[in-house]
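Write out this protein's structure.
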Amino acid sequence: MNYSLRKKNKIVKYIVIHYTGMKNLKLAYKKLSNKNSNVSAHYLISRKGIIFNLLCPKYKAWHAGKSKWKNITNINDYSIGIELENKGHEFGYSNFSKGQYNSTRKLISFLKKNFKISNKNIVFHSDISPNRKRDPGEKFFINKININRFKKKKIKNKYSINEMLVLYGFHNSYIKNHKNFCIEAVKRSLNYNNINSTQSKKFLNDFNNLLFN
């Protein structure tokens, strides 16, 4: 198992949701547990809803990779990683199961209470690494785990796309260098079927509603 010690000034404040992106649970479990894989996670949830606690959250898992969120870099330092069994976009992306949603909801409720994590700090892998990752993807419906990530107060009537991307939480370097990927990540959060970087009127309206409603 790959892990590092958390430094005393690195306090857990985020939960990052992933999918395994592998052909089956056995392969995912093996990879996440193998010290030669260079990856790991704290929890793995099977399609049947079984929760595997792979690593104590007091240790730092290697699940986020090169990542940024808001003004923070290296999200591994501050986060707990949850992997959901799913073949992913490469091997046959499918809907998440009822058992997975139920178990994810229970696990996140437990982690929120024990680590004092707020809903706004429950993020997707595609949020913190939009230029590299697509998980958990457009078929993951966060409302099914009773999480509302955004309850922002509207200060003015109209916001530019860049302002909305900042309010969403993307690191400024991603907005500057990978804006199209950031837009695609937002569309995954909105559960769009067609993922592209087009800024249609509908998308801008949906994005606005996501942030402020």
